Amino acid sequence: MISDQSRTRSSYDFAWYVRLTTRHGRVATDLDSLTSSLDNSEAPYDCLHPVSALFFKRFLKRPFQIASIVPSSKAMVERVAGKMDFSQPRVIAEYGPGEGVHSREIARRMSSDSHLLLFEVDAAFARDLERQFADDPRVHVIHGDAATLPNELKRHGFAQCDYILSGIPFSILKIEKKRALLRKTYDALAPGGRFIIYQVTNELRQHARLFEHAESEYFLQNIPPMFITVFHKTPSLHSRGRRIPQPKRASRLVGVGADRSE
């Protein structure tokens, strides 16, 4: 069942988009006109950038799965990537990369001996990601559910992930599937690893109690604004020597609403 939160988010995005594409009191209904309106519009904080026809078409077909009418802003992408440390070889997984705005930035920053696993259930997005990263052997596109992460790690010969990033709308998942995916995510992370999410709501924190520590910020430089939350898997007594270095910390608060739980 689709949650009220997910409906609210999609309704908010679409209402904003309609306002943006209204010209002289008439709403543009042609797809080319809609994407052109986005390409030529201006928004504060660099929140807006050209939206591909593919992204918009997929949103129209599966609005509650894709959840947002526009990809993450450049500022948002840089903020999220800044929460990862790329000074060493990493194994990183991303749930629901869509058209790959976060994936491209991660691939740009990570070392030549790092690896990025992209889990995308939408066939059109998966094909586009395969095209984008066809010449990059570090990036592995999996057309499948994020729940297959343990099998894919084993298939590619990786023990665990250092970071897992997710933009999928957890609020639309049934509680059993949500908790099962959280458990698999936790188990797939190396000691000291981090699960990073960006969501319109911060409701996932109440379900992710298996993580020992979490910190959130409310990021306004995106349409719509997002909560960015980092869940930490604390190193066990047997693995204290393999701590993942913390990236240099910028101010946690961009706008309002930052919070932390120990």
Structure description:
This protein has 262 residues and is of the alpha/beta class. It has two domains: 4-66, no CATH class; 74-261, Vaccinia Virus protein VP39 (Rossmann fold), CATH 3.40.50.150. 34% of the residues lie in helices and 20% in strands. The chain has helices at residues 4-20, 31-40, 53-61, 63-66, 74-81, 101-109, 123-132, 149-156, 175-188; strands at residues 22-23, 26-27, 91-95, 115-119, 139-142, 161-166, 189-199, 213-219, 226-232, 259-261. An eight-stranded mixed sheet has the order 5-4-3-6-7-9-8-10, sandwiched between helices. Helix 5 (74-81) packs across helix 6 (101-109). The longest helix is centred in the first third of the chain and has 17 residues, at 4-20. The protein is globular and about 40 Å long. Mean pLDDT is 77; it is low at 1-51 and 250-262.
Helix content: 25-40%
Taken together, the total number of domains comes to: 2
CATH class of the largest domain: Alpha Beta
CATH superfamily of the largest domain: Vaccinia Virus protein VP39
User: Which structural class do the helices and strands define?
Assistant: alpha/beta
According to DSSP, the number of beta strands is: 10
Which characteristics define this entry?
single chain; 262 residues; alpha/beta; 8-stranded mixed sheet; two-stranded antiparallel ribbon; 34% helix; globular
Secondary-structure topology with pairs:
Layout: H1 4-20, E1 22-23, E2 26-27, H2 31-40, H3 53-61, H4 63-66, H5 74-81, E3 91-95, H6 101-109, E4 115-119, H7 123-132, E5 139-142, H8 149-156, E6 161-166, H9 175-188, E7 189-199, E8 213-219, E9 226-232, E10 259-261
Parallel strand pairs: 3-4, 3-6, 4-5, 6-7
Antiparallel strand pairs: 1-2, 7-9, 8-9, 8-10
Helix pairs in contact: 5-6
